[in-house]
Structure formats: C-alpha cells, structure tokens
Amino acid sequence: MYILGIGLVFAGGFGIGQFEKALEGPWQRPATDNSGIYSYQVDLGTITDKGLLKGLRRSDKFSRMSVLAAADAVASSGMGSIEGKKAGVILSTAFGPHVTTFGFLDTILDYGDANVSPSTFSNSVHNAAASYIAQSLNIQGPTMTITQFFHSCQNALQLARLWLKEGRCDYVLAGAVDQYGDVMRYIYDQKLTPAPDGCIRPFNLKPTYQVPGEGAAFFLLGRDPEEGAFCKVGAISIGNPPEHEESADVTIIDSDGMLPDESAYATSISASPPIAAFSPFFGSMMIGSAFNCAAGAVMLKRQRYFANPVRENPHDMNLLDGTGAANIELIRCVRYNCHGEKAVIYLKKKDNYENDKR
Amino acid sequence: MKVLITGLGVISAAGKNLAENLDSLARGRRNAGAVTLFKTPLTYPVFEALCIPDRFCIEGRRTLGLALCAVDEALGNAHLEGELSGLRAGVCMGTTVASQLNDIDFYSSFRSMDRKEGSIPMTPVDRYLDGNLADFIARKIGARGPVLTVANACSSGTDAIGIALSWLRGGLCDIAIAGGADELNRIPYCGFGSLGIVSQELCAPFDRDRKGLNLGEGAGVVILETGSSALRRGIASGVQLTGYGSSSDAYHLTAPRPDGAGLKRAIGRALEESGIGLDKIDFINAHGTATPDNDKVEGRVLGALFGNRIRMASTKGYTGHTLGAAGGIEAVFTAVGLREGWIPGNAGFRTLDEEIGIAPVIGKTSIRGLYALSTSLAFGGNNAALVFRAGD
User: Fold this and answer.
1) What is the pLDDT of residues A36-93, one digit of tens each?
2) Residue A161's domain is classified under what CATH number?
3) What is the sign, positive or negative, of the torsion defined by CA atoms of B116, B122, B124, B130?
4) I need a surface site. Which of A133, A306, A351, B96 has the fewest CB within 10 A?
5) What was the ipTM of the complex prediction?
6) Predicted structure pTM score
7) Count of domains in chain A?
8) How far, in Å, CA of A348 to CA of A70, rounded?
9) Contact across the interface for B248 and A139, Cβ inside 8 Å
C-alpha cells in the first residue's frame, strides 16, 4: 500500500505545503484563547479556496476540516480527481463532532425535546463528515467512520490495506479528524496537565504537559506505486507486539501529553536511530499519529530530516536535531495507549518499490 | 476462505436472548410502549429492552450492558466462554449512541458552572472514556486481536460484521466477535423526532400507509470463525457468511438516493463475493424502517433486482429501529432463518404500496433455500449488505 497524497488541516495552515513549511521550523508558540489558554485551533476563515466550502454551508467545523483535508489529499497526489474510480473513505476519530453534539444538547436544554434543530442533529451524527466527503468528491465506494480513543489512525490504515488487498477499492481516502471545543478543554484540564507556557515537551515523558490541538489529516492510499507517491506503508501492528521490530532510520513517537505518563516510549527507543516527535507543530490530539505519519511520509519523499521542534531532552535521548538532506529508507511511527499497548506503522522509501514488488 | 457463524447472541424488546426473540417473532408479538427510560414530553412509541439480566447492567452505560448480554450468549453458543486467551480473536462492534459524549446532565452542569472557580462531577466523562464499545468488550472477554468500533449510523452493525469478515480473510484473526449495540437514548429520540420520520403509531414497514419508524434498543452479535479454526475446535456451524458489500450514495446527508444505485452496488458486491447470482437468494431481511423514503427506495431496488415474488421482510416491527444495533440483530435473524428454515412475517404490513410494487411476507414463512441477504441503509447515504449461506 502506498501513500499517494496527503491532505492536512491544522492550526499552522492548510495543505501539505504549509505542513512542510511548519516542519522546516522554527517552532512557534500557539495562540491563546480569550481565557489565556494555549491551544492549536484551526481557523477555517484563512482558507482562501472557498470552492469546496460552498457545498458545505450547513455543515459544521468537524465536517469542513474533514472535507478540506480529504480533497487536499487527492489534490496533492496529482490525480486531479478520484471521481469514477473504485474508491472508499475511512474517517477515524477519537471524539467525533462533539461540539455539534453539545450544540444539539443546547437546543434540547433551551427549547425542549419537541423543538430541537434537525440540521444540528444531522451534523452531530458521527458519520456526517464522511458522508460530506463522499458527496463532495463523488466517492461511491464504502464510506466508513470508525472511532477509537487510541490507535484510530492505525486502524484506519490497516482497514484500508485490507480493502485494497481484497479488491473492494482501488483507492482509499483514510484519515483522522478531531476537534477542540469548550467542553473538551475543560475535560483536558481536569484529566491532564496543561502546559503553562504553551510548549509541549515530547521527551519529558513524565510529567507530561498538553496543549490541545485540532485538525484533520487524510492519506490517499493506493495499491500501486504511482508517480509522485510519498512512500510505502509497511507493516502495521496494533496492540500486540510486532512480529519483528525492523531497524529504522528514524523513530517518530506520538508523545504529546495526552497520557499522564508517557514513559513507555522510552522502552521502545533503541540507542542508535534518532527520535523525533512533531506534536509541538499541531498540538496534543488522540489522532496525532496521523500528523506524525504525514511528517514521516514527507521525510521519505523529500529525503530530508526535519529537526525536532522542541528539544528539551531530560532523558538524554538521541534526538533528531538537524534539518537537512538525508538518506532515509525506513521510518517507524510509534504510539502507546493508556494500557501500555503499542501500535507501530512502518513507512518505507519509495525507491524500494521494485524490491517490494519482488 | 470459508467463514462460519459459530455463535449468535441477541437482546431486544423482543426478548433477552435468541430463544425469546424467536418466540416473539414466531408469535408476532410486538413489545412496544411509551418511553420509560427517560423523561420526555414526546409520545412516540418505542421498543425498550426491559429485560437486561442484572449481571449485565452497568450504571450509566446501557449500551455496553446490552452488548455484553448478546456477546455472552454468542460466546456460549460458540463454546468460547472463558476460552479466548489462547486464540486470535478480534472484536468489531457498531454503535451510534455509545460513540458520543452526550450525557445531558453532565452538559447541563457544565453550562451552568462558573468556569473559573467551579468543577463538576466527571463520572460521565470517565464512563465515556472507558466505554469505547469494542474496546470495552475486548477487555471484558480477553480478546487480544484487532479491535474496532464502527460509527456508521444505522448500518454500523452490518459494516462491523463486514469488517470482521475482512479481518478473517486477511489473516488478522481466526475468530471475530462482531455486531452492533445501541441503547434507547433521549438525544436520538429528540433528533429523529425533529427530522419528522418517527411515527406516533406502531411502525408498518413497506405498508402503503406507513408513517415512520419507532426507535428501539438492543444488541446483536455473531461469532465469525474461519473454517479451519472451527474444525480445530470441533465446532459445527450450520451457517456461513459469504459476502459483504458497502457503498455510499454520495447524494444527501439524510435522504437516500432516489434511484437506489448505491444499494444496488452494495448488494452486487456482496453477491459477487459470495460467487452467486441474484437468483440464488431465497429471502431477504430488509432494512425496512417504515419511513416513507427508505422503504420506497429499498423496496423498489429489491423488487427490481429480485422480482416481486422474492420473500422479504423487515423485522423492525418487533425490535424497533435499533440504529447501530440493527445490522447485528438482523444478521442474527437472517442466519437463524437459514438454519431453522423459517422467517417471521413483516409486522405491521397490511396494504401493498403501488409505488414500491413489492409486498413483504405477512406471516411466519417456511424457507428452504441456500442463501439469504440482509440489507442496511443508513443516514449519510451508506448502504451495506451481507450474504449468508446455509450449511458448513
């Protein structure tokens, strides 16, 4: 399975170009909201291409971020359109469109059971965003919404691989989306430790500090290596230990303060390959793996290292500390859940296509 | 690869286990009534599962209780109680309600709280964070294979079973616990009411004078198992799952595509995977929600594809529309229909709708065929279909 295109909506902008620009650094402190709390929030008002948004006038921010990222993944592949192709959609999320769900609860509390808003209800349903993607891009294959608090992105990629393998689809748009909002901020603050200075320190491991983020990251995946592909997706293991850990050139870890104790990452890091964590570019999110995978895919395509945005290193790890040209064959993306279970995605350089096919 | 159904479990308003459900279906019993689970001024009748055994009840997490009840029965049926630790078993479950943090009391407290000084009880949040449906079930029963919760609205249960089929065929596991679960909840009750598709009377799927759906609750679970695993364990099945198809209308958020092209594609794919033509299908458990739009589109498609003499019925007249659970419950009923040689009548149907042109069976009906189809149409334009085959 190959990553043919990547689409992103994050606090730093829209599109793989903006994401690459962010990866080049330097790290910038996120903005604060009215209460003085740091967060990585997406401002859809800055997106100048209103073409897609025109068809989404009645949709919510969750759906808009989803559609924009999915469409951008197709655009970045150079395919122009996947209309008429045997394509499917897998949208993964930890919390779904909770802001709209709470908006619907507002209508119940304010106006009573008999006077609620039908359009708010429709948009609060978990699979509304995937439906908008299918409508906007005219995708008529399987369109799935899956929800896990951890490893949702890994599950989406694994399912996409099965669909491609069994011929259910020739292309799959698989991605991850989550949104920030008032209630989620309260929950984060109660359950986790907000970074007082707006800085996620991915290598602290314990104690951890989070700065909430939001956004959408989509991958256009295909069975065959096509012109302009980013990389190959190698083995994916979720929960159970991988059958054999391959020796990677870089390990990207998803530490971002979303677990109160992220020490488990230290156990999965071998001495030699450098470690990277890019959460300070997009924020703390259950679906942060998707953004880290995107960073890995860009590294492989460009054959370029991106330095860690925040390099505080209390455990003396071998951090990736320089940006520049590199020879990268294999990247290992690692995520732990709250039960200490690990998910690993291996990304491989596209030069290996012929070998891979053999 | 042969995929067998080695266990079945179900709970709904029709009963707390498979035997009770089948008895209700056979007798045409419809256990509907006014809402008792929450306070509401709305008066739409509902199908509540008021029979959850105490050992499965979990405070504030009704969907999980329903799911555990059906999973327990299915595992027992498959002789897998307490036996999962050494097996490669996955869990794929569909839901709608359990995927959302929609606790109205929590949110009401949040709204009225002084944000700077106050705090509110976090128990509902803890329940939610600990209550991802598939994850919860997997931990409870000790399944160590793939785990996935599907939130694909009303086709969630069917899609979950379809994904589990892919897992088995793709070698991710040898056994999969799959299906759907959903509780009756005030949020969708109000929401569906606002969409104008809920009936004040008992639902009448495919009837000319149908006035909308009735909401219900429950869970339906199948144990899928590779033929080689079942052989190793010495388990007989009687029914196979042979195909799954899924498609998007790419048309509208709440209305089905009028020409039913998406549903046709989903059915076509499920038949293709099964290696059979339309003529092999002996009966269909239709989605049949009793809304004017769904039944018109679905009935027309089924009539056009299979002819107007196909034996077809919706079982929502016995369970209500159980949303994310519907596909799981109806998969169980379809598998049992093949295994036991009968299907229930389509409760509520009286008069043929000329716009649909096809009538469901109206009483308990014997069947003898090899293959059966179960269809789901969902909010968002999702369509899903499963094909089952009698025999091992």
Assistant:
1) 889 999 998 877 667 777 778 889 999 999 999 999 999 999 998 999 999 999 999 9
2) 3.40.47.10
3) positive
4) A351
5) 0.97
6) 0.97
7) 1
8) 22
9) yes
